[in-house]
Amino acid sequence: MTKEQPIPPVDPNDPVKRYTLYEMQTSGWEVVEIDGEVCANLTKEASQHWMQIMLDNGCSPDRIKLKRVH
Q1: Per-residue b/e over 45-59, b at no fewer than 16 CB within 10 Å?
Q2: What confidence score (pLDDT) does residue 4 get?
Q3: 69, 14 Cβ separation under 8 angstroms
Q4: Terminal Cα distance for the chain, rounded
Q5: What is the pTM for the complete model shown?
């Protein structure tokens, strides 16, 4: 079991919409971590990039969820 990475805080003054990427695990929806990078508080473009990496690595689209956090 790996140590959970902390999710960076959201800046309430940031005008850019931010998203967090989740993957369905056996324990429920978990924040995605790819190559040590926590996929939280991402811009739309960055979230699409990380989602495409997940799909390219064989993750089912049904196991991916993108949630707007700001």
Answers
A1: eebeebbeebeeeee
A2: 59
A3: no
A4: 30
A5: 0.80
